[in-house]
Amino acid sequence: TGDCNCKPGYTGDRCEAQCEREYYGKDCKKKCDCPNDTKCNHITGHCLRDYPAGWTGPRCEESCPDGSWGVSCKNKCGCDNGATCDKITGECLCLDGWYGPRCREACPKDRYGPQCMMRCMCENNGDCDPVDGRCLCKPGWTGQICDRACPPGTYGASCLGKCDCRNSADCDPVSGECVCAPGWRGPNCDQKCLDGYYGAGCSQPCKCQHGASCDHVSGACMCTEGWRGRHCEKACPEGFYGLDCQSICNCEDGS
pTM above the 0.70 mark? Predict the structure, then answer.
């Protein structure tokens, strides 16, 4: 017949004309579906207009894909550490615990949360989780804000260590080292002071005389037979003898 078989988007006896404004496609039979009577592409039907920033798709109904922003979603986000960007402005939207134009800076030690706006409450040098503000206590401390020393008998990280100190010794809450009570020594405080010494740290020299020993805790002298006094410096009075001079002599003729 000689009639022209037009390609999509064209019409006329010789296919010389594009589809009218509101139509597109094969034989120009498809009606455009664009907002506000915007003209569509005569071949594909895509709406011909500058998309609003942050949107894309044939009818501007799709948000920009992740990692892009702006008009026609042509701009690439430049955010780090898992941050997304605003689809319209490109501003980085940092995850909790990060801040800065590109979300490259971690929160300072005393801050946490969105844009690092929250103030940490951790005490005794406890570390603050930059995301949720939880306190990570140093060894020897416990509690929600690390404000309590380990309970008696425990020590170390999370107070999980068990002390092994004897004779009423204290346990260092950080290291677990035993702090001996007066009169005791050794790693576990299970040994008395060496002869001749007493007291805290077994550092006090005894002052007892005439072979007397001293109490390892108080330093009190325990006199040998025939001696008395605070330091066992006095002999028994005439007529007495023995331990603590408690025995009475039974001698005749003035002996």
Answer: no
